[in-house]
Amino acid sequence: MSFLDDEYLASWAAGDHEPLGGVSGMIVMKTSGGPDGKVNVSLSFEGGVLRAATPGTTRGADLTLEAPWELAAEVVCGDADPAQHYMAGDLKVSGDMALWLELLPAWRAAGSLGSPG
User: Considering only CA atoms, which of 15, 14, 44, 7 is closest in space to residue 29?
Assistant: First the structure.
């Protein structure tokens, strides 16, 4: 299993994770520079719980996060601070900034986005 491959996404969505506050919405994560080049995934959250993690982008995403593949892996797994990398410009955020401001403290408190690893 490798970060963001099909097996990772299936395990991620099937996991029993702590809720990330009350976050609800569709978040698209765009990565580049990984073993498979550019990889995009769509993450559907409802009531703070990850309900689906699917390959590709979803139209009408509420929030889009863009980062190099290695940084994305570190941030998702809780090994890097998303706020710090956002402020440094390494993690780009676009879309519903209110959702970002709701997601960020819950994500930082949890230490990860509920990744399977």
Answer: 44
Residue 115 phi, psi (nearest 5): -60, 155
Q: Put residue 78 in one of left, alpha, beta given phi > 0 → left and psi -120 to 50 → alpha.
A: left
Q: Is the pTM of this model over 0.85?
A: yes
Confidence (pLDDT) at 46: 93
Buried b (16+ CB within 10 A) or exposed e, 39-52: bbbbbbbeebbbee
Residues 75 and 42: their CA atoms lie apart, in Å, by 16
What phi, psi does 74 have (nearest 5°)?
A: -65, -40
Tell me what pLDDT residue 108 has: 75
Return the closest-CA partner of residue 62 out of 44, 48, 76, 50.
44
- Residue keyed to tokens 């949890």: 110
